[in-house]
Amino acid sequence: MDDRFEIFLVATPGLEAPLAAEAAALGWQPVVQPGGVTITGGWTDVWRANLWLRGATRVLARVGQFRALHLAQLDKRARKFPWADVLCRDVPVRVETTCKASRIYHAGAATQRIERAIAEELGAPLAPDAALVIKVRIEDDLVTISLDTTGESLHKRGHKEAVAKAPMRETMAAMFLREMGFDGSQPVLDPMCGSGTFVIEAAEIAAGLAPGRSRGFGFQQLASFDPAAWDAMRGAAAPRPAIPHFFGSDRDASAIRMSQANAQRAGVAALTSFDCRAIGDLERPGCSPGIVIVNPPYGARIGNKGPLFGLHAAMGQVFKERLGGWRVGIVTSEGALAKATGLPLESGPVVAHGGLKVRLWRTGVL
Ligand SMILES: C[S@@+](CC[C@H](N)C(=O)[O-])C[C@H]1O[C@@H](n2cnc3c(N)ncnc32)[C@H](O)[C@@H]1O
């Protein structure tokens, strides 16, 4: 296989653009596509993408392509594929196939041919629950073989054990912060912080901590894996000093305890502070103005919508009265609730969030 290949960074739908911006900031030349971003690189780029990207949900290495017009041809070409260049004989794998606009239209039959080729030609075991997944896409009769180099979704940073109601995914939180213009230097405040996702992500970004520093990845099971080079890459990520101006509050005392525990596990307890208070009791932080980012209850998943209008109106009033100079971002599935704040908001693109469609609504400086 070539030293350089296409690497597809899977995005949360609607957050492709900030992911591309993040990849560009890390030195790649990203191309935005529906559902993700393509970069070109080698195995060390795959490791670095998994270790450092905050907005990707997984990283796929496109390791090969061939045409197949029917199943017998797929079988033959899959048997010739240099599996030993990428897979290890002793690591169980499974294959997932999708077919689109192709003469081969039966994904199950295609999966069976490719799995059999891997088992018989390479000798690797197949297992329906294997952690290592080979993703095969057959589109216009072209078979693309990708390896899922991530394993468990990248929003699982490995620090959040405690989860409050309706938590925001870390990958989304990081991209919404980026869309607010957060670059690690500004204070951040989330007055309905739940399990603390926005505040902890912001503090980690400020401290230069790699999001994947505490977890394992699928690529560690591949033939190309070099443990010494990986340790060196991880070890080179030195945290930088950061200002302790990342604030969360919530009216729910158990949410605050979770936030504190999560921040502790993430190694950012000293940069964050969490207080149990309702939005009406919010106090202006003593630092220079920064970014408020909040993901209030929507009603679709938790509670009913009616009283939420009053809550949003009160929240907007509090922000106007106490947070002059700050900028506000509200993540919600309900445009009417965002408008009920009375804040001058502009909406961003629709983003898929656990079956809901949310948007980031932003103000300028209040
Ligand atoms: C959708 S959740 C936020 C989830 C959070 N972004 C996370 O990642 O875990 C909404 C939060 O708003 C809090 N909340 C609801 N009403 C509130 C109020 N009046 N004052 C403060 N917090 C409130 C809830 O306790 C809940 O934790």
Automatic annotation (TrEMBL):
<feature type="domain" description="Ribosomal RNA large subunit methyltransferase K/L-like methyltransferase">
    <location>
        <begin position="157"/>
        <end position="341"/>
    </location>
</feature>
<protein>
    <submittedName>
        <fullName>Class I SAM-dependent RNA methyltransferase</fullName>
    </submittedName>
</protein>
<dbReference type="GO" id="GO:0008168">
    <property type="term" value="F:methyltransferase activity"/>
</dbReference>
<keyword id="KW-0808">Transferase</keyword>
<dbReference type="InterPro" id="IPR029063">
    <property type="entry name" value="SAM-dependent_MTases_sf"/>
</dbReference>
<dbReference type="InterPro" id="IPR000241">
    <property type="entry name" value="RlmKL-like_Mtase"/>
</dbReference>
<dbReference type="GO" id="GO:0032259">
    <property type="term" value="P:methylation"/>
</dbReference>
<keyword id="KW-0489">Methyltransferase</keyword>
<feature type="domain" description="RlmL ferredoxin-like">
    <location>
        <begin position="6"/>
        <end position="60"/>
    </location>
</feature>
<dbReference type="Pfam" id="PF01170">
    <property type="entry name" value="UPF0020"/>
</dbReference>
<dbReference type="InterPro" id="IPR054170">
    <property type="entry name" value="RlmL_1st"/>
</dbReference>
<dbReference type="InterPro" id="IPR053943">
    <property type="entry name" value="RlmKL-like_Mtase_CS"/>
</dbReference>
<dbReference type="Pfam" id="PF22020">
    <property type="entry name" value="RlmL_1st"/>
</dbReference>
